[in-house]
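User: Sequence in, structure out. Go.
Assistant: Echoing your sequence, followed by the structure tokens.
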Amino acid sequence: MPIAPVQLETFARHHIGGMLDWFPTAEALAQWGGTGLRFPLDAVQLEAMLASTLGEAPERWMFAGTVGGSLAGHAQIALDWENGVGRLARVAVSPTFRGQGLADPFLRQVVTRFFADARFERLELNVYTFNAAAIRTYLKLGFVEEGVRRSSAKVGDVRWDTALYGMLRSDLPATALTQNGKPT
């Protein structure tokens, strides 16, 4: 269990500095953010992501998980407003907080926040098949494996397979969208 409860916040500019040292290699950055990011992760790239959260129908939502006021986790959801689908992406726990059981409670809050918006019916994610810890967490949350895209990413001279997982609003337990008997 985590040392203190993880609090869900909207990711903001003041969180950026806390993430810049989370990914020590190009491979670690690609595992988190895909092959389109430049190593090392810098404020300019995070600012561009943050800019995509603006407007009435933003491209993405970004979340911070904090413990005792410190940035402990990060997650994003890319939004397909037309089809009512979100893609959970760029999930990470700070190296300082890894191994403390934060991923599950943090992501439960992210999933609940996403499905609290009645316009969305499906949440999906891509995860590299070698990332066993993440896959265990996603399965525990109720995601279902829907397939594998073989050799879908090239990182250096190595090719990685990507698994697709999905969750439907109807997959959630009835209590997931309520807190103390009230809608969240």
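User: And one key feature?
Assistant: The CA atoms of residues 177 and 184 lie 6 Å apart.
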